[in-house]
Amino acid sequence: MRRIRMTVSYDGTEYHGWQVQPGLPTIQSVLEGVLAEIEGAPVKVAGSGRTDAGVHARAQVAAFTMVNPIPVDNLRKAINRLLPLDIRVIEVAEAAADFHPRYQARAKTYEYRLHRGETCSPFDHRYVYHYPYPLDEARIFELAPMIEGEYDFSAFAASDDKDDLGRSKVRRVFHSRASRSGDLLIYSVRGSGFLKHMVRNIVGVLLEVGKGNLTRADIAKRFEPGCAIPPGPSVPALGLFLVSVEY
Do 183 and 117 meet the contact criterion of CB atoms below 8 Å apart? Predict the structure, then answer.
């Protein structure tokens, strides 16, 4: 048996997220279908995490086990021949038998993109949140680093079907910055791991900062023990990209 690691890039617009869902198109289900065709038997694909419906990835990491002896470069070509054009496998490599893309990940980086121009090109609208309204962007740039550090991010996490398990929502954020590039306001965050809708909720809070509705103190309150502030507001999925996974 071979353990294979692959890096996958995808446009998440037409998919209901990464994870298999009965009767719905997902990235995982498409990959498993293609690999089963190559292997001639069912193949289970594990990802570094579950991107939500409509979220994109530049470099999602996944792994699977197979018997087929096809060389990795030919395997990448075979997979891409069978995949739809909005999913591409960028790299395929042999991995250790115990490699797991989720449990062994050390850090992930996400970007969220807002288009600030009056008019958004039809060639960009699937990949940005068009927000042409007034914002104090300097204030957003100033307060975005407040997210850095190790905190309980419950006030930034949507409810999850695993909440009943009582798992910790403490995460460490290494880098949290907002910047401007042309018409794009880009929020970049690198952390040890992320909770459901966490990045989208962080961006939503920063937008409220830019609107003048929230202050530095309001952000600080969200990290206080026992905080009862509900998560959000959240921004749409279409502007979010998983940029990289580190091991």
Answer: yes
